């Protein structure tokens, strides 16, 4: 299985991101848009792993809020993303997840954590287009759980499925 640990957007944030994608399309940005149902904020990318590791997901110690914050592009990865306001709580959660993976001997991508949600792969921006001029919808969500996702190649691109969840109470819910 190809796995990663991420935050699942609440419906209001997912709708704000879908609206933002619509705004980008209207402004002439082309590329492979992620379906709003597949949007997520990756905390740790694991890659291929032979088994479900939902039982290793750490709980969210204390629920906290995150908010959308700007747009950007990773040129090397060819990705246009919506940023998430950095916070100590969010960085701490990413560290907590990564520490749990390390303690269990599960390898993951060790790139520094940068909070964002991918909107468009291989974006092509119109001439004179300025990302900073695109208004970001005010969207906030409360983080209460981390999710284990399985990612699969499909004829329509990648599909992401939540297969487990580490809850704020410490309980694990397998889906």
Q: Name the overall outline.
A: globular
Give the % helix.
10-25%
Biggest beta-sheet profile: 5 strands, antiparallel
Radius of gyration: 16 Å
Q: How would you state the average pLDDT, rounded?
A: 92
* CATH architectural label: Alpha-Beta Complex
Low-confidence stretches: 170-175
Give the CATH H-level superfamily: Cyclic phosphodiesterase
Number of helices: 2
Description:
This protein has 175 residues and is α+β, with helices and mostly antiparallel strands. The chain has one domain (2-174): Cyclic Phosphodiesterase, Chain: A, CATH 3.90.1140. It is 18% helix and 41% strand. It has two helices and ten strands. It has helices spanning 11-26, 88-103; strands at residues 2-7, 30-33, 41-48, 64-74, 79-84, 116-124, 140-143, 145-154, 157-167, 172-174. A five-stranded antiparallel sheet has the order 3-1-8-9-10, with helices on one face. It has a five-stranded antiparallel sheet with strand order 2-6-5-4-7, with helices on one face. A hairpin with a 2-residue loop joins β8 and β9. The radius of gyration is 16 Å and the shape is globular. Residues 170-175 have low confidence and may be disordered.
